[in-house]
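Table S2 (continued). Query chain:
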Amino acid sequence: MRKFAIAAFAALAVFTTPAPAADKGGPPATLEQIIAATPKALSGCYAEAGLQGTFLAQGDRLANGALGFGCDAKLGLGIIGGGFRAFFGESEGRGGSLYGKLGFALNPHVGLYGLIDWRIKDWKARDLGQLAVGAGLETTLFRDGVSGFIEASTPIAKWGTGVTKDDVLTMVGLRWRF
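Corresponding output:
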């Protein structure tokens, strides 16, 4: 009985003693190490192509193609990024935009973000622009850096003769990360 009690006490001591964590004792990770460890999904620079639609309150519908370029950084669960887009197609929707986004990763391959977009219609100086806010969702489609996205925004202010304040701007497309 005595041998059993000693063995039980030794087993209890071994299994209840906390083990040191593998990541303790070293210096904290640097920003460069965090960025290097971040998976390619939802981070890095990209080229994008998509379809942009403007749905006017008066019932008109406009569809345009869009090409763009941007970069995103993912630190932990946070996503911050921005880029440039050019729209082409029907005469009412041509132009371009500069945009910024701030959001978070729902998981390593799906991101949800808020969007702020400065649009200039038809590349004309008299159209000083339109400021829109909205949201977007991006998800990785393939392992080699291809993701799909969908965005919707609504203008909050305009200057010049751009589209009206009650438009709903939507975009769906693909991003190729490199």
